[in-house]
Design a protein that fits this description.
Layout: H1 8-34, H2 46-77, H3 84-106, H4 120-142, H5 149-163, H6 175-210, H7 214-235, H8 248-259, H9 261-277, H10 285-307, H11 312-318, H12 322-352, H13 360-394, H14 398-404, H15 406-433, H16 449-452
Bound molecules: protoporphyrin IX containing FE (2 copies) and fe (ii) ion (FE2).
Length: 464
């Protein structure tokens, strides 16, 4: 940790750990409901559990992105955060809004729009909060002499994510229009601007962990940004097939979304090849595992499993089934869950001055959570394929099919238990690191010996 204000990142990461744990609990509530054990129903009906599960996911990922930015932007800009205190206020406000929304879901205060369930008044508070965050990192970057490609891509990714929250707030009484705008948020986030955030964090971690020249790593970041925009923007059309929009979306959506895996393939190739190329091994191998693992599993979950149901002829059958949940889990985990855990793994020793990346809990966390999530994805896949065949090909009634596929949810519970053990180990390792250190102590940067001696190519401003 080179700048004192980077310490605020730890509080964002601690919030991630807390909200992530809660998210998992709600996942289990739904998984048990699927096998018929739905005793909590009077207090937590399925719709409330589902909205809580997915919204907690989005909030902990956003907290992770913000924490990452508060660590990365000062370091890349070589100056303290512009308003360090504001960052704490902004975190507290985010948590208060998030908790209010979650309580609201349980009291039936919600908008029935998947992923955008947060009631409208709270939306405005989210917007203000995120704008404060953007202003803070924006000013830090603006006032710096040194604006690296990595920092700029991270900043613009976050700025566009903030702006793309707004279409979801456009008032309309028309169901088609509502769906249309909802996808601007959901799709253009995860298959557009969040990919820039992920690409930038990936680039930062690869520079730090592999010792490969910044110039080479950032050159490939441009290619990824290009591929993302080329395919992702019009790829939105793969959600317009059946919502009442014109027929030409079948063609446009099908074609462009089929190209989307290229950006994720690029990231997988990027992660693996840079890790191979970097001769100087960084001691924090756990962070490198999470980084490269993220680049690979994001391709599997988003690229491969996304492609599996993106063509209209296939989506016609799989739309809105557990096939979507199969893809949703692996894509969110591989791309965004793992990049947040990667950045936490890398920064934690620097923030706390303790090096616990070799601890058994760190290695166990990586393997158990990943094997657990791959198995969960398989359980959803088997349930999803069975659902599609029985419900949509054979024509069996919806609830009868749900009874037929119950057994696969026992498989899901088993796999999710392994996943949860892994995450418990991760959180245990996080707690063992302790709180961030009080005073700036440059000796802690010795945690990065390999990279400190690595040749660094001049950033645009010419200083590193
Ligand atoms: C213990 C772990 C977990 C369990 C048991 C679990 C279970 C579930 C269940 C049963 C559903 C609802 C499926 C339905 O509609 O019937 C669901 C939805 C969802 N979960 Fe999880 N989950 C877990 C962890 C996670 C994690 C770690 C992530 C992301 C990284 C995640 C992302 C999602 C998403 C995105 C959806 C919505 C999918 C869709 O729109 O179809 N879940 N989860
Ligand atoms: C990291 C990136 C990605 C994430 C986190 C992600 C996550 C999700 C989630 C949660 C849903 C359900 C949304 C909802 O119903 O509200 C979804 C739907 C979908 N995704 Fe992705 N996705 C990603 C990338 C991709 C890619 C690259 C493709 C195509 C190549 C793709 C194809 C689809 C399709 C076709 C649907 C609609 C499923 C349906 O009709 O029910 N996704 N995705
Ligand atoms: Fe999409």
């Amino acid at each position: 940790m080179k700048y004192n204000s980077q310490r605020v990142a730890w509080w964002f990461f601690a919030t991630c750990m807390l909200l992530f744990s809660l998210q998992i609990i709600y996942g289990f509530i739904m998984a048990f409901a699927h096998v018929g054990l739905d005793g909590l129903h009077p207090w937590i009906p399925f719709n409330a559990a589902r909205a809580t599960h997915t919204n907690l996911l989005v909030v902990w990922l956003l907290a992770g992105f913000m924490g990452a930015a508060y660590f990365i932007i000062p370091e890349e800009s070589q100056r303290e955060l512009e308003w360090p205190r504001l960052a704490y206020v902004q975190l507290a406000a985010l948590v208060i809004v998030g908790v209010t929304a979650i309580i609201g879901f349980h009291l039936n205060w919600w908008e029935g729009r998947k992923f955008l369930e947060i009631p409208r008044p709270l939306d405005f508070l989210v917007v203000i909060d995120v704008l404060l965050f953007i202003a803070n990192i924006g000013m830090t970057l603006w006032k710096s002499e040194r604006k690296t490609t990595t920092a700029l891509v991270l900043f613009f990714g976050l700025l566009m994510a903030a702006l793309l929250y707004l279409p979801g707030m456009i008032p309309t009484a028309n169901q088609t229009m509502d769906s249309y705008w909802r996808w601007w948020v959901v799709h253009l986030w995860v298959e557009g601007v969040w990919e820039l955030i992920m690409g930038a964090i990936l680039s930062y971690l690869l520079i730090k962990l592999t010792g490969v020249d910044r110039e080479i790593i950032e050159k490939w970041l441009y290619v990824i940004v290009g591929l993302t925009f080329l395919s992702g923007i019009l790829g939105t059309g793969h959600h317009y097939y059946f919502i009442g929009t014109p027929r030409y979306w079948l063609m446009i959506g099908g074609t462009f979304s089929a190209l989307e895996p290229l950006a994720f393939l690029g990231m997988a190739w990027y992660g693996i090849s840079m890790a191979k190329r970097g001769g100087r091994a960084h001691p924090n191998r756990t962070a490198l595992s999470w980084t490269v693992g993220c680049s690979v599993l994001s391709f599997v979950g988003a690229g491969f499993l996304g492609f599996a149901h993106t063509i209209p002829q296939v989506n016609l059958w799989t739309h809105g089934t557990l096939i979507t949940a199969m893809h949703g889990h692996m894509a969110f985990w591989g791309a965004y869950g793992m990049i947040v855990l990667a950045v936490i793994s890398y920064t934690l020793p620097l923030l706390t001055g303790r090096r616990l990346y070799d601890a058994p809990s760190a290695t166990f966390a990586f393997w158990a959570s990943n094997i657990g999530m791959i198995s969960m994805t398989l359980a959803f896949a088997v349930a999803g394929v069975t659902q599609v065949v029985l419900e949509r090909r054979v024509g069996m009634e919806f609830l009868q099919v749900q009874t037929e596929i119950q057994v696969h949810f026992w498989g899901l519970i088993l796999a999710a238990s392994l996943f949860t053990l892994g995450i418990t180990a991760f959180i245990w390792n996080f707690i063992q690191h302790g709180k961030p250190v009080g005073e700036l102590d440059t000796s802690r940067d010795a945690v990065e010996p390999a990279v400190a001696s690595a040749p660094v190519v001049a950033a645009p401003s010419g200083a590193e």
